[in-house]
Every structure is written in C-alpha cells, then in structure tokens.
C-alpha cells in the first residue's frame, strides 16, 4: 500500500526531501537504541583511568582486557564465571521443565475430555491475572520448606509453574487438524505415542517460541533471585551484576565486562530466534 | 466414565459427530490418561501457585516473623495498620505506593505514544526494515540488571556519557541524574522507555498490520490526507490494541523494581523507593512477612481496580 503511494511520485523533489528526513529520523533512532550497548562494549575494553578520561572516546585509547581478566579470575566475592554457569544451568533447566510440563498439560486440555477439565483450565488461566509480587512472601517460605533457599532449584522450579506456557500451547494444539491424530488412534497408537510422534513434531514453531521466551525470562529474572540466592557462589548473573556493581563501584571496565557477559547469550539468541521472539510477543498481544 | 457421559449428554448433543461423539477420544487409553498428562504441571501449579495464593492470605493475618518461632494470629491488623497514620508501616508504605504511582504516571504516556510512532514508521515498506525493527527491539531482550548497571554508568553526573554530550552542547553544569529530583524520575522513566519501547512497538505493529488496507484506499479516494487517515482509519482500527497496550504498560510500570533498586537505590531520601522495593525489603530483609504479604495484597487490589477502571473508561468513550 505504501509502495503504491510512493510509486510514480519518486522523483518529486519534495518527496526526496521527506524521504531523506525520514531516513535521518530512522538512523537517529537506531543510534539512540544501539549506542548505549556499544558504549558498554567499548568501556569493557578500556583501562580503568581510560574509561573516565575526558574527552570520552568511543574507541579505547588503549585497549585493555583488564575488565575481563578481573571478572574471570575472581572466585571469592564476585565469581562471575560461576554466575554465568549458574545462569546457564538455571535458564536451561527452567526451559526444559516448562516445555515438558506445559506441552503435556496443554495437550490434555486441548484434546482430551475428562471430569474437571474446564475447572482446571479456568483456574489455571485465572492465575495469569495474579501479579507475580503476590507470590513473593509465600513462595519464599515454600522454597525454604523444600530446603531450596540459596540453591539453583529455587530459580529453576517455581517459575515453571506459571500458566502462560500451558495456555499458549493449548491454543496451538487446538488449531492443529485432528485427522492425523485420529488416524493414528485407529492404527492402535496410544495417546502418549500420538503426542510424542505426531503432535510434538508438528509443534516445533510454538515450542521454539515458548523455549526462547522461557529462557530469556529466566536468564533476565532479577527480583526473585536477588532474595532467594544469598551467598556469592549460588547467584545467577542478574543479582550478581548488582553485587559486582557494589563491589567495584567506579571500576567501570569491570562492571561493563560483566554486563557484556550477561548480554552476549541473549543477544545471540535474539539474532538467531528473532522471528520466534517477535512473533511470540505480537501474538501474546493479539490474544487480548 | 459412564457417569461422565450421561452427565455431559446435554452438552455433547449440541456437537454431534458422525463417528460416535467425542468419547472416541478415549479409545485405546484409560480414563486416567488425561490426569497423567496433567500431573507434572499440576504438581508445580499446586506447590507454587495455588498453595502460595492461599498461604499468602493466611500469612497476612499473622504476625509472621520468619526469624521468630511463634507466629501469632493478628486478624486484619496488618491491613488496618496500613490505613492507620503513625503506625510502624503506613508512612513508608504509602510513600512507596506514591513512588510507584509517580513512576507509572510519568512512564505510561511515553510508553504508549512513542512506540506507536515507531510502529507507524516501521509499518511502511522500506529497505532494511527488519534490521531497524531488530535494532529497536534489541534492548528489550536484555535484563533489567544489565540495563540498570549500564544506565547507572551512562547517567553518572561526573563521568557519564549523557552529561558529557550535554556539556558539548553547552550545558555547563553536571545534571545530578541519580541523586536529585526531578532528575531521578527522568532517568528512571527514560531508561525504561529505552528498554521496553520495542515490546509495545511490536504489539502495535501487529495491530497495524491487521487493519484492512482497503479502508486506507477508500479514505484516499474520499480525499483524506495523511493526518485524516490516521485519525479516521488507523486510530479506530487500533482501539483494542491500544487498550491492551495501555493496560499491560500500566501493570508493567506498577511492577517496577529493578531500575530504582540498581540505579537510584531509592534515593533521594526514599523518594524513588517504589512499592515492590519496600515490600521486598520489609518481608525478605526485615522478615516482617505477614505485614509485607498484606502490603502486596493492597498493591494487587489497587492494580486490579485501575485495570477495571481502565476498561470501563475505554468502554464509555466508545459510545
């Protein structure tokens, strides 16, 4: 539609001017969004005095890996590599649990009839409207009761109870044509075989979307881990970065190196799985 | 199973099936199969959603100090304390509620309008469109911790990039972005817009693409200019999406925690200590968990009322 509007008038000088202004706005916006990230990267390769020496420069006057050396070699108060490993384990474990439990439950809710199904679905979806902070106090005590305080289990398991995945996959399973499953049923396959061999392979895109969103959410989670992961070696990166900031105060190359380390996995994931993330977000918007 | 099929007969007859109704779903599987599919999720759901939802209310009715052995029943005292001036908690609590309210009030207009403008730009066809969309969305995939430490550095009054460029533009004093009002609010709102703009823009974009293109053509035939087309076609078409964006943005802003926790640490003088910061500190640092649970329900109730009000207002302006 927009092309039609531009077609034929392309050589009009006013058009060219407005196109130029428009691209200028775009580029300016892009700079605003990307520059802070580049500044983080640039600072992480500066020397400590170089990071704050005026005039500030985008290219380090003197390249230094001191920031990275520092975070890779500290093991006591700020074991950043340990946090990185913890974050990887937590986000992967969390994602795995979400995929397994949500796909099984979502399939049952979409395709099976059983007493209590509508009630279960209603209650599960209803909890989507309860704000997360309401669970802060009781879940702290429940996690403590299980002996999970200050362990990664505290950030892996409770978050997987959220209703979004079940709801999201159920909606997708409902949209699948029933014929394939019915044919397999007649051929004597049981429900679990059908689920495993027919439904899941057909569901790769929504499973990928849910996996990426779950991983991102868990990797970035801040409020809950700040309070349930107490000792330095049990922390994940987000609370760890806050600890790092407190420990290194104005040693910006060190702090920014930590920020870069925490950003790289999610930015890589974003560029690989952009389609799934953006689709997931816009679909979660459209359901409303 | 037999009891179920008689019980559901009325419902089933409304959806007749040539091959014998939906009981076919049970061929080759026992009635417990659905429950086995549900079980792994339900275990999690019970332990970490249903039980805490009830347990939280129970806690809020006790003087629930994590560190003390006895947790005496106090009835509604934790709630009435919040509404009693001069009680131990009410002053700080309402100050933190006010901080959350201010942040929400300041941030929501920007987070509703700017992403719409960005979405309108991205809805045009032009080369490298998906590159720009990715660039605007990228900050959103970062966590609040990264965003916080990064902006704390960028906004540092003495060595930050923001004041450096303002200096080059002729602002000859260092703006205290972190430590003084109103700058602390400007900082918190600004970094939040930078961080989450892409999320709202993507939702708008999906909404824009759902608007029937023939409506624009019809408006053009009628001689409507760009602005008239925006007001008469785009805005009405975006109505449901707009309501959605406003609602989720209000809720997201009211859930603010990480930005003030990392960047301003509540300063100056607890002015930017938002509700969740205070509740978490009171419950999980000072371990007045019953009182903190009560506060979280009051905040949740306030948010529920605002959401309902939002829907009612939108419904009314529709007439």
Question: How would you summarize this macromolecular structure in one to three sentences?
Answer:
The complex is a heterodimer of chains A (288) and B (319). Chain A has 288 residues and is mainly alpha-helical.
Overview of the molecule:
The complex is a heterodimer of chains A (288) and B (319). Chain A has helices at 2-6, 13-44, 66-73, 80-111, 117-126, 136-145, 153-156, 164-175, 179-186, 191-202, 204-220, 223-228, 237-248, 252-286. Chain A folds into two domains: 2-69, no CATH class; 75-286, Orthogonal Bundle (MetI-like fold), CATH 1.10.3720. In chain A, α3 crosses α14 (252-286), α9 (179-186) packs antiparallel against α10 (191-202) and α11 packs antiparallel against α14 (252-286). With 288 residues, chain A is an all-alpha fold. The model of chain A is unreliable at 1-9 (pLDDT under 50). Chain B has 319 residues and is mainly α. Chain B has a single domain (95-318), classed as MetI-like fold (Orthogonal Bundle). Chain B is built from 14 helices and no strands. Chain B has helices at residues 2-7, 9-13, 33-60, 77-82, 90-122, 129-137, 144-154, 161-168, 183-209, 213-221, 226-254, 258-264, 275-284, 289-318. In chain B, α3 packs across α14, α11 packs antiparallel against α14 (289-318) and α13 (275-284) packs antiparallel against α14. The radius of gyration of chain B is 26 Å and the shape is globular. The two termini of chain B are 49 Å apart. Mean pLDDT of chain B is 86; it is low at 1-24. At the A-B interface, α2, α4, α5, α6 and α10 of A face α3, α6, α7, α9 and α10 of B.
């Amino acid at each position: 539609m927009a092309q039609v509007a531009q077609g034929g008038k392309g050589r009009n000088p006013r058009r060219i001017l407005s196109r130029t202004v428009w691209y200028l706005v775009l580029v300016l916006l892009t700079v605003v969004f990307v520059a802070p990230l580049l500044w983080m990267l640039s600072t992480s390769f500066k020397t400590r005095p170089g990071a704050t020496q005026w005039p500030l420069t985008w290219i380090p006057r003197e390249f230094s890996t001191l920031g990275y050396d520092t975070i890779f070699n500290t093991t006591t108060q700020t074991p950043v590599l340990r946090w990185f490993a913890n974050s990887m384990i937590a986000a992967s474990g969390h994602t795995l649990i979400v995929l397994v439990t949500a796909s099984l439950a979502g399939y049952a809710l979409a395709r099976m009839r059983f007493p209590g199904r509508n009630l279960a679905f209603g209650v599960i979806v209803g909890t989507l409207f309860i704000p997360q902070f309401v669970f802060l106090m009781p879940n702290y005590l429940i996690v403590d009761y299980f002996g999970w305080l200050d362990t990664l289990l505290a950030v892996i398991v409770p978050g997987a109870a959220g209703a979004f995945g079940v709801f999201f996959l159920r909606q997708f399973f409902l949209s699948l044509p029933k014929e394939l499953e019915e044919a397999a049923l007649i051929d004597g396959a049981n429900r679990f075989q059908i689920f495993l061999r027919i439904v899941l392979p057909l569901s790769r895109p929504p499973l990928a979307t849910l996996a990426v969103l779950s991983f991102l959410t868990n990797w970035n989670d801040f409020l809950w881990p700040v309070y349930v992961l107490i000792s330095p070696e049990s922390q994940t990166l987000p609370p760890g970065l806050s600890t790092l900031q407190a420990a290194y105060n104005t040693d910006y190359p060190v702090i920014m190196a930590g920020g870069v380390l925490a950003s790289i996995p999610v930015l890589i994931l974003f560029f690989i799985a952009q389609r799934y993330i953006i689709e997931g977000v816009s679909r979660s918007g459209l359901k409303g | 199973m037999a009891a179920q099929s008689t019980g559901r007969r009325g419902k089933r007859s409304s959806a007749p099936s040539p091959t014998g109704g939906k009981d076919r779903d049970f061929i080759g599987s026992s009635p417990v199969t659905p429950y086995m599919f549900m079980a792994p999720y339900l275990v999690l759901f019970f332990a970490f959603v249903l039980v805490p939802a009830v347990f939280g209310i129970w806690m809020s009715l006790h003087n629930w100090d994590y560190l003390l052995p006895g947790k005496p029943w106090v009835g509604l005292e934790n709630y009435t304390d919040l509404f009693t001036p001069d009680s131990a908690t009410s002053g700080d609590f309402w100050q933190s509620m006010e901080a959350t309210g201010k942040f929400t009030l300041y941030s929501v207009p920007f987070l509703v309008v700017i992403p719409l403008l960005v979405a309108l730009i991205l809805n045009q066809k032009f080369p490298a469109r998906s590159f720009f969309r990715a660039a605007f969305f990228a900050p959103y995939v970062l966590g609040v911790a990264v965003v916080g430490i990064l902006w704390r550095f960028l906004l540092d009054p003495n060595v930050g990039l923001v004041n450096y460029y303002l200096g080059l533009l002729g602002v000859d004093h260092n703006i205290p972005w972190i430590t003084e009002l109103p700058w602390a609010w400007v900082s918190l709102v600004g970094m939040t817009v930078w961080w989450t703009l892409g999320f709202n823009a993507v939702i708008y974009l999906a909404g824009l693409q759902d608007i029937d293109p023939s409506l624009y053509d019809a408006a053009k035939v009628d001689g409507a200019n760009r602005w008239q087309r925006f007001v008469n076609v785009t805005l009405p078409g975006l109505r449901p999406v707009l309501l959605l964006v406003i609602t989720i943005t209000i809720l997201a802003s009211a859930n603010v925690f990480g930005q003030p926790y990392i960047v301003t640490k509540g300063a100056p003088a607890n002015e930017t200590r938002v509700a969740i910061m205070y509740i978490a500190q009171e419950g999980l640092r000072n371990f007045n968990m019953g009182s903190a649970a009560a506060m979280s329900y009051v905040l949740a109730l306030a948010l529920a009322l605002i959401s309902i009000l939002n829907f009612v207002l939108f419904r009314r302006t529709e007439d």
